Amino acid sequence: MNKKIVVKTIWISLVLLISIFILNNNSFKTDITQFLPAGVDKESSLLMKLLQDGPGSRVIIAEFSGENKDELASVAKYMSVELSKTGKFQKILGTEISIPDIDDDILFRYRFLLTDTDFSVKNIKSELSKRLEELSYGLIVDRKQFKRDPVNVYLSYLKSLSSINSRYTYKGVWFSEDKKNSYLLLYSSSSSLDLISQEKVINSIYKSFGIYENKNIKIKLTGPPVFAVYSKSAIQKTSQFISLISSIGIVILIYFSYRSFRRVFLISIPLLSGILSGTSVVLLLFGQIHAITLAFGITILGIAIDYPIHLYSHGGTRSAAKQIRRTLALSAITTSIGFIALLLSGFDGLQQMGVFAIFGVITAAFVTHWVLPEFESREIYLQALYDVHVKNIILILNKIKVIDAFKVLTLISIIFFLFNYPNLWEKGIKKISPVPEQLINLDEQIRSRINAPEPGEFLLISGRSQEQVLQKSEEIVPDLEDLIKKSLLKSFDAPSLYLPSKSRQAKRQENLPLKSSIEDIVKQAQDNLPFQNQLFVPFITDIVTSKKLPLLDYNKLKDTLLEMRVSSLLIDDVNEWHAVIPLDNVSKIADIENFAKIHDAQYINTANKISDMMGIYLNNALVSMSYGLCFILIIIILVFRSIKKVTMIVLPVISVIFMTVGCLALIIGNLNIFHVISLLVVLGISLDYFLYVDRFKSNASGYKTIGSSLLMCSMTTLLVFFILSITSIPVLQAIGQTISIGTFFSLVLSLAYIGAIDQNKTHI
Amino acid sequence: MSKWMIAMLLISLNSYILADSTFGIKELLKKFDGRQYPLRSYVERRESDFLITPIVSEGYISYENNELIKLVNNPFKKKFTVIDDVLIITDGEYQKTISISDYPGLKSFVTVFRAILAGDYEGLIEDFNTNLSGNVDRWSLELKPKNVKLKSIIYEIAVNGKFDQINSFDFYENGGDHIKIILGKIDNE
Predict the structure, then answer these.
(1) B103 → closest Cβ in A132, A133, A139
(2) Nearest CA to CA, how far is B92 from chain A (Å)?
(3) B86: which residues sit within 8 A by CB, 6+ positions away?
(4) Which of A43, A547, A636, B11 is the most exposed place for a label (fewest CB within 10 A)?
């Protein structure tokens, strides 16, 4: 059988098989956990867990603004009712608190164990007198509760659960102090990392608001789910726009370069094969593929379009493939080694992207070499126009002595790099966050209006068991109250304020009066008060029952008002428990750090901790990159076995990398982790270019062939990454800026080298 | 009786019948629309099966500039001020602020009082089913809560009055309690 038919048949079969496999394993993920760092130590892992899926991460604040406060109250009430019907919310706060029926409420049953109660005759009498007054004011809400809890133990306890320190209400709805805004606090039932569900949650809010849209009332939403959904949508829209524009651009460029739509299709074959292969390997190894891996992986894999361009620059036939075989293989292998750094990044999503890119690049090179030539029977070249352009560009580059300029600038970049190394990196996450400053400012404004600051500092108490951390939390609370008195702290929260340790519950249980004793106390307290004699028998019965209750723990709090509150402060972390004690307005950090040390706790400042983590990730990325470089160097040495040759290939690559870093530092100031990761792509591109320059030097390819090929390759790369660099999404910007600058430097230097080599050849 | 007098009597009767036939809740509320309600004495009597003897309190009540003030003189001295959704209880120098939304019984009193005096028909029918009986010089307004939460506490509220004066409120609670507030004459002192 004809070799061409065999190769094409094998390729088509493989493509079909892989496509079927991908379609049958359609496990595309959209939650963003895999693209968030897992943490570099115990505290940071816990912090990331809290930030990513802690209860605070599910809160959406809805602010309604307008001139008519009655309308603002009614919109909040209407929305609260409508949204609670959707089943998409765990809890909605902001309108009248619905206190659960006391018969079903575990907190009511456990009220005497959850809080201290004074059972003296004096206190009970005083409380009964207050109830009598309240009865006359119309302040008694629940008759059943009145008889079972005339001391108001339960109501006082519920008040302590209020999450917002001071709030203004009108018609039972939370308002800002100036009554121009009403609020709802919506706790989504979905994980904050499940962006598709969160998007549905947000859409349901806007849908419910629909009928108020034309009534001069405006709605504004904020909170972590809003940020996450906004980011997803912004990235998605930008990616789609970039994909569309760059695909059209590349198709036009390739069409005008070869004047053939068939060629456009053939050039895309290695890239499409690479995408299929990368996807299937990721699915095999990870069991699923993230949408971001696919979107950015394809962008990164875009560099593989250079392979068929190189092939067609050499004629496009089997003999052309044989000519560039070694260079192509070396380029693909070294580029793949560069991507190994992604495997060591510490981000699951980036590891997926690394696997995707490595297998994609190798497949693209393989298909370029084995499959593509089988579609061509005659040689095909780029339009002659390229030859003219290449010649002119090289002439200019030689004239202005670009190589010398690069030598000087590289030296300056290296010196700059060495002197500024520690300050060169951006460790905060604000600048890489896709959330626009406008939304962050709105969040800050809304939170200040309802007095709900974002907790940024906390103490972390760890222990072997839930009981141990609750006991530690109980011990630390009185000392924290002292700190408030000393103005070192404004306020704090602690899990033990809501869920006492079992030992404390047992103590309270022990101190509850016996039946005969409480009967006597109530009788004496009722003296001279007009209450019916047997009115408080249910109160006495409850006290007697409480003496026998099994002690309460976190597991029994499910579906109670407490669950949401305690779950953000008490964390079960495999073999360890942690109590989180949020601190508000710490005035002297050093004092709090000392306080934490004394109490066997850790003081954590979220912003600083994240900054430290990002620093460590950056260092890891740089170290991985250095290992990658060394490995690439070893491979090139092994292949070429000539120090001179290796130097000729590696030195310009290093020059491009340092020049790119220097240029980025000059333009944007600090480099973030995405700039560093993008430098890997620059490494791959420049290596590819200088390997082809070496072919020219070795007379394996001609001046025009290599020059035109590099010009064409760089144009496709620049087209994609320049568009990326002008988007408003910081991560995409970082990738676009780095690769555009790196590709430009690679092109200029490689063409300058070709010119210099050509001059030497001519002189000889 | 002269023909002239008979004619006059018929005309008056006719105009009274005509006027009465147009007397509805909207017309009643129009009489109050936005007016101030100066200080009036009141006597409140609460009968409850919690109590051996009813609680009787007395003092003064007023509604001006959207502020509802109740000054209790007996059996204890206290001042209750309702502004918007907030109840301020003043006991000598001590002040306590609470949201009336958390207390449906109190809220229903404030809502009804405020809605009638403000002539707020929409506000009243938002929370209650209404039934007006009698005529201009002696009317009775029955209000039954629509809201489930309020319905679980208040069975019915009856407001009695004549012309543009409220004479009394009767609150019938589901638990069996009955509160009667009788308002005295306007006291400008």
Answers:
(1) A139
(2) 16
(3) A169, B97, B98, B99, B100
(4) B11
Arithmetic mean of pLDDT, A211-215: 75
Contact criterion met (CB < 8 Å) for A138 and B105: yes
Provide the 3-class DSSP secondary structure of residue A325: helix
List residues bridging with A744 in a β-sheet: none
CB A499 within 8 A of CB A570: yes
Predicted pLDDT at A524: 95
Contact across the interface for B50 and A135, Cβ inside 8 Å:
yes
B188 is written with which tokens? 């400008």
Which tens digits make up the pLDDT trace of A473-523? 999 999 999 998 888 888 888 889 888 999 999 999 999 999 999 999 999
Q: Which residue has the higher pLDDT, A281 or B92?
A: A281
Taking only the tens place, the pLDDT of each residue in A536-551 is 999 999 999 999 999 9
The whole-model pTM stands at: 0.65
CB B156 within 8 A of CB B105: no
Q: Which of A133, A141, A532 sits opposite B104 (nearest CB)?
A: A141
Residue A178, chain B, CB below 8 Å: the answer is no
Which residues, numbered 95 to 154 in chain A, qualify as contacts with chain B under a Cβ-Cβ cut-off of 8 Å?
A: 96-98, 132-133, 135-141, 143, 146-147
- Residue B131 sits at φ, ψ, to 5 deg, of -145, 115
Among residues 72-131 of chain B, which lie with CB inside 8 Å of chain A?
76, 80, 84-86, 89, 98-99, 101-107, 109
Q: What is the pLDDT of residues A581-610, one digit of tens each?
A: 888 778 888 888 899 999 999 888 877 777
ipTM surpasses cut 0.85: no
Q: CB-based contacts of A748: which residues, under 8 Å, 6+ apart?
A: A397, A402, A406
Nearest by CB to B55, which of A136, A146, A535? A136
E-strand stretches of A474-575: 491-492, 570-573
Q: Please tell me the distance in Å from B54's CA to the nearest CA on chain A.
A: 8
Token digits of residue A385: 């126009």
Q: CB B106 to CB A172 under 8 A?
A: no
User: Is B49 near chain A, with CB under 8 Å?
Assistant: yes
CB A611 within 8 A of CB A427: yes
Query: 């970049």: which residue's tokens?
Result: A413
Whether A344 has a pLDDT exceeding 90, the answer reads no
Structure tokens at A24: 């049958």
Residues of A within 8 A of B52 (CB-CB) are 530-532
Owner of token pair 């220097």: A662
| N-terminal to C-terminal alpha carbon distance within chain B | 47
